[in-house]
Amino acid sequence: MDDVESPFDCDAAVIGGGPGGLTGAIYLARFKRSVHVLDAGHSRAARIPRSHNMPGYPQGVAGTALIEAMREQARRYGAVLETACVQRLQRVDGGFALHFTGGREPLRCRQVLLATGVSDNEPAMPHLAQALREGTLRYCPVCDGFEVTGHSVGVLTDRCAGVREALYLRHFSEHVTLYFTQRVDVAAEDHRRLAAAGIALQAAPVRALRLREGGGVLIEHEDGTDERDSLYAALGLRVHSTLATALGADHDEDGYLLTDARQRTSIEGLYAAGDVAQSLNQITVAAGGAAIAASAMHRALGLPG
Predict the structure, then answer these.
(1) SS3 271
(2) H or E element that contains 37
């Protein structure tokens, strides 16, 4: 009997080339599944100057170095890594068609792992790349709160949700000040909590941010200018889940995709892992979720017997 040509280009497509997507690709490739990784080149992890909470790297690891090592590992087992921006997912019989910007032919696959992550809303600040590199500007106290132990720390927010981040950082430093980008009506209970924790609140809106010569940041507000060693931006995130939500995938009010214990979305054959799914936004969590997703995908693709 002649072999019937498959209508699919690969078993699985991974959309997103950060640690979550690459972990999924490594697992799928080692499961002897044909897998394509489509990476638009915007991994949040690539912006990390040096992570000190990544297991196995006692001296820390740069985000770019971690990603390149994972890319090499995925290629070693046969994963195909491509630079491409997926514009739309289409359901087709037995799988999906991935449509790209730029007019290239769609890629057809049986299953999809979405690992498109999130992006930080950035403050209006010159020399952002330098500020991140020097640790002047930070985004994730879960990742690097330890590194600001005892330092003077500012938390910049545009809403009262920043109160929680300031309280979280108070565990690491006694010198925390909460700043706002606009006038915010801070509730009496939040005033009480901040005061009880010894956190200063500067209600005058911030007008400008700039790097301080020799390190740190200058925070100019309507009542003057403050100097701080580091500034955490608590301005929210943009969740890159529209490829899934356009198909009707379930999500929460912030746009995070809802998945089950196997990282399955509400769309059959579509899995999600990493920051795009509802969970703690951490590299290790992304990798763990992707490993779970890839294992479930492997079984769903079919085993002998």
Answers:
(1) strand
(2) strand 35-39
The secondary structure of residue 305, as a DSSP letter, is -
Q: Are 264 and 250 in contact (CB under 8 A)?
A: no
The three-class DSSP label of residue 67 is: helix
* pLDDT per residue as tens digits for the range 117-163: 999 999 999 999 999 999 999 999 999 999 999 999 999 999 878 99
The rounded distance, in Å, linking the Cα atoms of 44 and 66 is 12
Task: Name the nearest CA neighbour of 125 among 206, 68, 183, 245.
Answer: 206
Q: Number of H helices and number of E strands within the chain? A: 8, 17
**H or E stretch at 24:** helix 19-30
Residue 75, pLDDT score:
98
The two tokens of residue 46 are: 């690539």
pLDDT above 70 as % of the chain: 98
Look up residue 294 and give its two tokens.
């890839």
Report the 10 Å Cβ neighbour count for 196: 10
How is residue 117 written in tokens?
């992550």
Q: What separation in angstroms does the CA of 129 have from each of 110, 135, 188? A: 39, 10, 37
